[in-house]
């Protein structure tokens, strides 16, 4: 043990001894050039003995102070080096085995040393690289000393790394044992520095086969975005854009992704009615905004024109669910032609998912191309994504573990009886919050796949799907019920576990504090740019990212097959290897491969853009 500690600390001791040696030479008034010459010469001597250390050089220097103080520098340096060249560790009767340094010194005494120590009185006209005049310049003899030392080190096989007491990459460190480091990292979640010094757990940058399989992207089967509108759609474009008589007002509400869905529907309804769309500035434009993409489809205004500012709008508070374009025209067209302004509220999921092809393409165009985050949000989201990407691929998880999620779904977090009782009490006090089927018990909901996955289940699923322990994970979502305790299974298995608070520098999130939609937008950007994405439960954000990743080339998106996999989670007698094999088989077709929307009625084209908005071997066009 002592030998290992001595070996580990030897480079630091040598470095400190070097500094002490340099200080002693300065105190003895030895010129800088001479001191470097002495140090390199002694290095060669000690290196030949294979016992090089700055400590031995320092000791030799102290033992020969009187010799170095001599006024005749040339003679004193030669004597000093000759003393060092003679056997210092052998008995006097034995001949010294160090012969090379003595030869070097003899050659130096007649050439190199003379050039270093004696200033010539006449200018030499020799134009070779090491001319006599060049030795008068400090640059010349410093370069000569550097070459001499370098050649000596290479010939003697000197390991230069022993002279470097610190890592050449001071911003990162390597953990030699990932299993030991994971426990300490649990308490570090939430610290910015934990991300900045995160390592690859001692693994080579080239991933193993199992790791590369996890990061492998699905086969897009040649599908590319194609938004070619029909001739009839293009023919009516000019008349719609020139119309100045009809205006549609919409009031959007809810979270960021609910606003997104309502704006998509509002644009399509405006196109159906041939009206201009007035977007509420305070509620929408703070998050969204790039109406230029839709300039050939619908007129987008920030406010009503002066000619209609005093017009009392026709208000529709309750639009039925999943209405068709025919229903919209029959219900609103005469009224908006007569009054000029129509006000719609609560548009969430009001428009049918099965629309004509041109209107489906318009939905895709709005969702994937027209809607843009405001520049400050987009800039910060990209910064956080780049910080995650700086150490390689990363996985984004959308965790739905907030208190209100457990209450609304009728499920339990599975942390402890205390937290289960909190959910039961909240549900009894507010029965209207339960949005799932009220006639089902918790266990029935769980087995039906209606409950969010908790941290333990997410961890086991990721391990079964081949996620490496070194995987970097960004988790999106609100504060989970139970705090860090609720996340501890994930943190133990995947220590590189971060959210936006961990990645952001001090002050970066302050402009968006206490603004849930802004925070959700940042989560959306970082999650969408991940190499792999997986939600713990369905929802608007998961659906939006699924469609965006499909439209971007079918980037990997894991859809947990909760209904079929949970019985295996409950089977404690199942061997781990068999469990992993079954889980892999259950998810072979749930990794983001292209899925045809037409295979199931009622699917949203913004979640499944194939085939209306994506074609095989087609040019990407937006007309």
Q: Compute the separation of the termini in Å.
A: 74 Å
Residues in helices, as a percent range:
40-55%
Q: With helices defined by DSSP (H or I, 4 residues minimum), what is the helix count?
A: 27
Strand order of the largest sheet: 4-3-2-6-5
- Average of pLDDT: 75
The description of the largest β-sheet is:
5 strands, parallel
Secondary-structure content class: alpha/beta
Oligomer: single chain
Per DSSP, what share of the residues sits in E-state strands of 2 or more residues? 5-15%
Shape: globular
Low-pLDDT runs of 5+ residues are 44-54, 85-132, 156-207
Describe the structure.
The chain is an alpha/beta fold and 623 residues long. It has 27 helices and twelve strands. The strands form three sheets. A five-stranded parallel sheet has the order 4-3-2-6-5. A five-stranded parallel sheet has the order 9-8-7-10-11. Helix 15 links the parallel strand 5 and strand 6 (341-345). The longest helix has 26 residues, at 2-27. Residues 44-54, 85-132 and 156-207 have low confidence and may be disordered.
